[in-house]
Amino acid sequence: MPLLETRALNKRFGGLHVTNNVDLVLKTGEVHCLIGPNGAGKSTLFRLILGEHLPSSGSILFGGEDITALKPFQRIRRGMSVKFQVPGIFKALSVRQNLEIAMQHHYEPATLGDEIGRLLDFLNLSVDAERLAGNLSHGQKQWLEIGMAISLKPRLLLLDEPTAGMSPEETHATGEMVKRLNAEGMTVLAVEHDMAFVRQVADQVTVLHLGGVFAQGSIDDIVADERVAAIYLGQSTAHATAHEQPGGVHA
Amino acid sequence: MNALTRIFRRLEGPQTLGRGPFFWVGFLVVLVGACAYPLLSDGYTVGNTVYFFTWIFMALGLCLIWGYGGSLSFGQTAFFGIAGYGYGILTINFGAAYGFTFVALVLAMALAALFAALLGYFLFFGRISGVFLGIVTLSVTLVLERFMAQTAGPEWRIGSARLNGFNGMSNMPPLTIPWPGGDIVLFPDVQLYYVVLGLLVVVYLALRILVNSPFGNVLVAIRENPERAEMLGYDIRKYQLGTFVIGAALAGLSGVLYTSWGQYITPSSMGMTAAALPIVWVAVGGRSDLTTTLIGTLTVLAVFQALTIYGSQYALVVMGAMLVLTVLLAPSGLILALARLIARPFAKRQPGDA
Amino acid sequence: MDVGTLAFSALYQFGDAFAFLVLSACGLAVIFGMMGVINLAHGEFIMCGAYVTVSAAHAGLPLPLAIAIGAVVSGLVGALVEILVIRHLYERPLDTIVATWGLSLIGTQGTLILLGSTMAGVGTPFGSFQIGAYSYSVYRLVLFVMAVVVLAGLYALFNWTRFGVMARATIQVPHMAAALGVDTRLVYSLTFALGAGLAGLAGGLYAPTMTLVPTMGTTFIMEAFVTVVVGGADVFLGTAPAAAVLAVVKAAMTSWYGQLAGQIGLLIAVIIVIRVLPRGISGFLLRERV
C-alpha cells in the first residue's frame, strides 16, 4: 500500500494554476525526490501535503486515510514530520530544550533525558546542548531541525531542500543520514535542487513542471530523459543555486 | 526526601531564572520577612500593603500570556472588572454568611474565565495574533468600561445590587472566613494580609510548575516559532486558549481581591489608563520571567504610590515614561536587566552566548 | 412618516457613522498599512488636533483654518515622536505598540496637568435643517463630505505623487527601495507624520461637536481599532469598505438601542468577522489576486 498518495490535486491562486492535477504515489520505505525548475510548484505541493495550504480540488491520502481536510498538527500526529528549508528552530531556547519540546510527548518522562542525550550525540551537538539554538552555525541549525523532525519517529519525513546552504561535504553527510534513516524504515520525500544529493539518496524521482507531474522514474531514467533536460535548459538561471521562495504566494 | 526533591525539580527549569540553593534560600528569607512584616508595622499600613499584593495576580497572569506565550493581551482589566463586579453582585445578593464570600470569589473567577474562553475561542481559533489580538482585547475592555459607565439608572440592577454607572458599585461585604464563635471578617488588616500572601505564594509556585512543565515548553515554543510548534504536532490554538483562560482567571482573582479590599469597584478600573498599568508592571519588570514580573510589579507600584502624593496624573506620566524608556533601553525589562547584571559574575558563561 | 423621510433618516445615520469610522481610523490605518505599527497614541493625536483647533478658533481664526492648523500641529508632533521613539523600534513592531501606549499615558495625563480637566469648546457651526419630524445637523453632512474627501485625497496621494510611489515601494520591498535611492527613514517619518496629521484632522473636525477633555481620544480609538482590524492592512481596499460595512451595523444598532448598543454591536461584529476573515476585508479581497 502506498504511504502517501495525492489524487488529482489542484491548487489555484486566483488565475494562477500552481498545482495542476498532481497524482503522486509514495511507496512505503522509499526515498522520493521532488525536483523541477524554479516555479514548478514544488513548494506549493509540499505545503499542500503538510496542510499549510488547502487544495482547490483533489485529495490526499496518508496511510490509506483521507487527510485532505486535516490541519497540519493533525497530519503530524498521524506520522508526518517536516524539516523546512529555512531552519525552523526555537532560537531563544537552548538546543536541549528545542529537542525536549519536540520529544516530550513521544517518550516516557523517565527516559526522555537519555533519549535527548542519544539524539544530541547522533547530531554531534552534545557539547552545544546548553547553547541557544540561535547561536549555532548554519549547518548545526540544519542538523538540529533534522533532529527535531526525526525525533517524532515519523513514518514519513518531509524535507524541503535539506542541503540548502551546505558545503559538498555536509551535503554528502546529510545524504548518508537520510539513507540510514531510510534503512531504519522511514519513508522520505525531499524537495531538492542538488542533483548529487538526489543521485545519492533517491529511489524514485518526480519532476514537476508548470505545476504538473512532468516525468517520473529512477534517477537514471530522469537524467536520460531529454525532455527533462530541455525544461531545465529553458531556465535562464542556474537551478543548482537558485532558491525558490517558500510562501511567496503570501506576498 | 525523595518526594521533596521531585517537587523542587518541578519548580525549576529553563523557563524560570531563579534556581539553585541560593535562590531558594533567598526566597525563604523574603517569605519569612514577609510573614514577620505585620509584627513590625501597624494594621493600617499592612492593610495598604495588601492593596499592592492584590494586583500581582493580574500581573502574573499577563506575564504568562504575554511573556511566556507571546500573545498580546491588552484587556486583562476586562477580566479584572468582570470578576470584581461579579463578586459584588453575588455577595450583595447572598451576603457573607457560611463562607459564601469565598464561593463568590471562585464563581467570579470562573465567570471571568468563562468570558475569556468565549472571547479566546473566537480570537485564537480565528488565528488572530500579534497586534490585532492586542487591539481587540483592548477594545473589549474599553467597551465594557463604557457599558458599565452608563448603568447609572435604577433599572440597572441585578437582584438587590445596583450597578450604579460611573460611580461604581460599593458596600459589598469583604471576604469572610466562617469561624466558630464569630466569623473572621477580612478587612484590610493583618488577617487579610496573611490570606493574600498565602494565595500569592501558592499561585507563584503553581505558575512556576506550570511554565516548567511540558505545557510551559510548548508555550514558549509558540512564542518563539508558532509554525514550528504546530509542525511538531501541537494544536497551538488550544495552548493559547488555555493560557488565556488561566491569565484571565488570575486577573479575576485580582479583581475580586481589589473589590473586597476597598469594598467598591468602578468602571474606570477597566478603562484605557487602568489597562495600561499591568502592561507597565510586566514590561518594566521583565515579562519573560515570573520572578522579575513579581518584583517589577511591586517596585513599580511602590514608585507609583510614592508619586501619587503629587497627584495621580504625575504618577501616570512617570509610568508612561517608564514604559517608553523600558521598551527603548531594556526591552526585556529593567528588573531582568538588573538581575542579569548582578548574576553575571556568578554565572558560567556559555561559549558563544552573548 | 413616509418612506422618503425614513430613507433619508437611515442614510443620514449611515453617513454619520461612516464619516466617524473613516475619519477615526484613516490615520491609524495609514500607519498600520505602511509600517505595520499600531499607534496606541492615536487617540492622543486626535485629542491634540482637537485642542489646537479649538485654541486657534478661540484666538479668532476661522474654523477651517483652525482645523488645518490642528492637523498640521498633530502631524509635526507625530514626526517628532517618530524620530524620538518609533524609529528605534522598527525591528520590533510588537514593542512599538507598547511604547506608543506609554506615549498615550504621557499625552493624556500631561494634558490634564497642563490644561486641566476640560477646555471650553466652540459651538457646532451651520445649524440644522428639518426633514419630516426630525431635524438634522448640517455639520454632520459636512463631516461626511470630508470623510470622502480624505479618502479621495489619500488615494491621489498614494497613487499619483512621488511620495506615494516611494511609500509603496518602501512597504513592499524596503531593502530594494533603499537600494534604489529612496530615503526609507524619511518615508517612514513622513508616513507616521501623515497618520498623526490625519488623526489631528479627525480631532479638529469633531472638536466642535464634543466636549474637550484629555481622555477624549478614547471616544475614537475603539472605532478606529475595529475598523482597522476588519479592514486589514490596506487603506483603500480595507478601511473604506470596512467602515461602510461597520457603519451599517453601527447605525442600525444605534437607532434601535442607542449609542452604546452601536458600539457593542461593532465589537461583536468584529469578533465574528475575524473568526471568518482572519486577514480582514483587504486580505480577503486581495487573496484572489495573488
In short:
The complex is a heterotrimer of chains A (251), B (354) and C (290). Chain B has 14 helices and six strands.
Mean pLDDT of chain B: 88
Please tally the helical runs of chain B, counting DSSP H or I stretches of 4 or more residues: 14
Cα end-to-end separation of chain C: 49 Å
Based on Cα principal axes, name the global outline of chain C.
Answer: globular
**Integer-rounded radius of gyration of chain C:** 19 Å
What is the radius of gyration of chain B?
20 Å
- Total beta-strand segments of chain B: 6
Secondary structural class of chain B: mainly alpha
The largest β sheet of chain C comes out as: 2 strands, antiparallel
> What oligomeric arrangement do these chains adopt?
heterotrimer
**Strand order of the main beta sheet of chain B, please?**
1-2
> H/E series of chain C, N to C?
HHHHEEHHHHHHHH
Q: Could you tell me how far the N terminus lies from the C terminus of chain B, measured between alpha carbons in angstroms?
A: 38 Å
Q: Which shape of chain B, going by the Cα principal axes?
A: globular
Total count of strands of chain C: 2
Low-confidence stretches of chain C: none
Order of helices and strands of chain B: HHHHHHEEEEEHHHHEHHHH
Q: Tell me the strand percentage band of chain C.
A: under 5%
Query: Helicity level of chain C, as a percent range?
Result: over 70%
Mean pLDDT of chain C: 84
Summed up, the helix count of chain C is 12
List the helices and strands and how they pair.
The complex is a heterotrimer of chains A (251), B (354) and C (290).
Chain A: E1 2-13, E2 16-27, E3 31-35, H1 42-50, E4 57-62, E5 65-66, H2 72-77, E6 80-83, H3 95-103, H4 109-122, H5 138-151, E7 156-160, H6 168-183, E8 187-191, H7 195-201, E9 204-209, E10 212-217, H8 219-224, H9 226-233
Helix pairs in contact in A: 3-4, 3-5, 6-7
Chain B: H1 2-11, H2 20-36, H3 43-68, H4 76-94, H5 100-125, H6 130-149, E1 157-158, E2 161-162, E3 169-170, E4 176-177, E5 184-185, H7 190-211, H8 214-224, H9 226-230, H10 236-262, E6 264-265, H11 272-285, H12 290-308, H13 312-329, H14 334-343
Antiparallel strand pairs in B: 1-2, 3-6, 4-5
Chain C: H1 3-35, H2 42-58, H3 63-84, H4 93-115, E1 128-131, E2 134-137, H5 138-160, H6 162-172, H7 174-179, H8 184-206, H9 217-231, H10 235-257, H11 259-276, H12 280-287
Antiparallel strand pairs in C: 1-2
Helix pairs in contact in C: 1-5, 1-8, 1-9, 1-10, 2-3, 2-8, 2-9, 3-8, 5-6, 6-8, 9-10, 9-11, 9-12, 10-11, 10-12
